[in-house]
């Protein structure tokens, strides 16, 4: 079956950086739309960044200029580089393969002020 496994979460101070990874296995679609989503305590899940198989990216306004989404097709891995982190970025981050509707279990990111 399809598996998405996130890693790279952790605790950092405001202004710091983290890089999340999402290892994808068993995904056989010829085109894809992969994304990162997050859910903060007491809030609804929200989209953070998406990338299509043609390389088109889109970002939430709250992360534009700070986060970068990318894919290593050879390694079947989705990345989210997060810079200039803020306390409001604290959340569980999930990766998803939107074509097919597959989700990872999430990785916790905690930003302290």
Briefly note the structural class of the backbone.
mainly beta
Overall mean pLDDT stands at 96
Question: Hey, roughly how much beta strand do the residues contain?
Answer: over 45%
Poorly predicted runs are none
Give the fraction of residues assigned to helices: under 10%
Distance between the termini: 40 Å
Q: SSE order in H/E notation?
A: EEEEEEEEEEE
Radius of gyration: 13 Å
Number of strands: 11
**In DSSP terms, counting alpha (H) and pi (I) runs of 4 or more, how many helices?**
0
Gross morphology: globular
Largest sheet: 7 strands, mixed
Characterize the structure shown.
The protein is mostly beta strands and 113 residues long. 0% of the residues lie in helices and 54% in strands. It has no helices and eleven strands. The strands form two sheets. Strands 2, 4, 5, 6, 9, 10 and 11 form a seven-stranded mixed β-sheet that branches. A hairpin with a 4-residue loop joins strand 9 and strand 10. The protein is globular, with a radius of gyration of 13 Å. The N and C termini lie far apart (40 Å). The mean pLDDT is 96.
Itemize the secondary structure elements and their pairings.
Elements: E1 3-7, E2 10-13, E3 18-25, E4 33-39, E5 46-52, E6 57-59, E7 67-72, E8 77-82, E9 91-97, E10 102-103, E11 107-112
């Amino acid at each position: 079956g399809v598996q998405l496994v996130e890693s790279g979460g952790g605790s950092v101070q405001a202004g710091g950086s983290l890089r999340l990874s999402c290892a994808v296995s068993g995904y056989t679609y010829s085109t894809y739309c992969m994304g990162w989503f997050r859910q903060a305590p007491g809030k609804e899940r929200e989209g953070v960044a998406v990338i299509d198989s043609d390389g088109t990216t889109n970002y939430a306004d709250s992360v534009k200029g700070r986060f970068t989404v990318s894919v290593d097709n050879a390694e079947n891995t989705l990345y989210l580089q997060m810079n200039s982190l803020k306390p409001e970025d604290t959340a569980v981050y999930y990766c998803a393969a939107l074509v097919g509707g597959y989700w990872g279990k999430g990785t916790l990111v905690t930003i302290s002020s």
